[in-house]
Amino acid sequence: MGIISAPAVNVEAAVAAGASIQQAVQAAIPAASAPVAAPATITNEPVVLPATGAAPEAAATPVVVEAPAVENKPAVEPNTAPAEPVSKADQLKAKIEALNKQIETASKKREQLEALLRSVDLLDGIKSGSVVVAKVGRAETAKEVVATVVGVQTLGSGDKRFKIYYGQGFDADTVVIQESQILDVRQV
Questions:
Q1: 156 DSSP 8-state letter
Q2: Which of 26, 33, 65, 124 has the fewest CB atoms within 10 Å, i.e. is most exposed?
Q3: CA distances from 73 to 66, 70, 76 (A)
Q4: Mind listing the pLDDT tens digit for each residue in 89-124?
Q5: Helix H or strand E encompassing 49
């Protein structure tokens, strides 16, 4: 515990003059600008302040001020009303309902993974001569077309690009598309 250096205030004289012990102690505590030897903490230990004043014998006698007991109480009292007992049947019903929700979530995830697996298998099987349904064009001019794959290019990152042609005769077009633009594989 650090020692607080106090200005010359006689706590006993202040109490005798009609001030409360708290007021006398506050008068003995240094101002905020004065340096403090240790940080203040709230404890249940007594605080010792040196008594100073007119009488020289009082200067040698320290004044002991007891700190009030500190109780740790929660800011809000918890609800102390007893909870109604839950029957065993209700507990089991709640567990079954939770498991049903987990099963439903897992089933949806499984369906998504199976669809992804089918599409990956189909995309891996595309080669020259395969017939695909692809989305070509940008924004307002985008359209779905049935096209024939002319060539497949595998990039360094593992992604694939496809050169396709669609249409007939003089109106036939040849474009390069990404895997994500293939909507369906009609013939491998």
A1: T
A2: 33
A3: 21, 9, 8
A4: 999 999 999 999 999 999 999 998 888 888 788 888
A5: strand 47-50
Instruction: Give CA angle at 56 (55, 59), nearest 5°.
Output: 95
State phi, psi for 169 to the nearest 5 degrees. 65, -140
**Alpha helices of 17-87 — where are they, by DSSP H?**
21-28, 56-60
Pair of tokens at residue 141: 């001019």
Q: Look-up: residue for tokens 């809000």?
A: 76
What's at 110, amino acid-wise? R
CB atoms within 10 A of CB 88: 8
DSSP codes of every residue in 79-129: --SPPPPPPHHHHHHHHHHHHHHHHHHHHHHHHHHHHHHHHHHHHHT--TT
Q: Give domain limits for the chain.
A: 11-65, 89-124, 126-187
More confident residue, 53 or 173: 173
